[in-house]
Amino acid sequence: MNFIRRIAICTFVILSVSGCATSYDTQKSFWSFGKGFDITQIAEDSWQIGFVGNTHTDRALARKYMLRKAAELADGANYPYFVLSSEQNNKDTVASGGVGFKGDDWLYSLGNIENETSVIVEVTGLTEKTEKTSRVYDTRYILNKIKFDS
Q: Does the keyword Signal apply (predicted)?
């Protein structure tokens, strides 16, 4: 009876957690099923930020995550402003499972279809606000306005 109770509790916890949007503090890894942030510094003043969210993470939330992360990177490198370039924000459908056969053997599995939101952007820190680019973000303003509960 104890074994069945443990299985029921584990199932409840897994189902409870799986119904949530990918959280802001998630780093992309095997344990996060490929969801979360991936950050690469591409120059002294520039970073590439990638984020993949689960079915419950919409495009607007993913973009807010990316803006907050960009502001944190710029602030950590002492840049009061930053610009974004080559931004891509996608909602992709991924599926698994299917039916197939080889010879007399049939293979069957139940499929799963998920929508993943992905954002990838290049961020460049600036020491002063310039009018040469179309949109310059104020690092402190973003940090003060966009917040997420951990």
A: yes
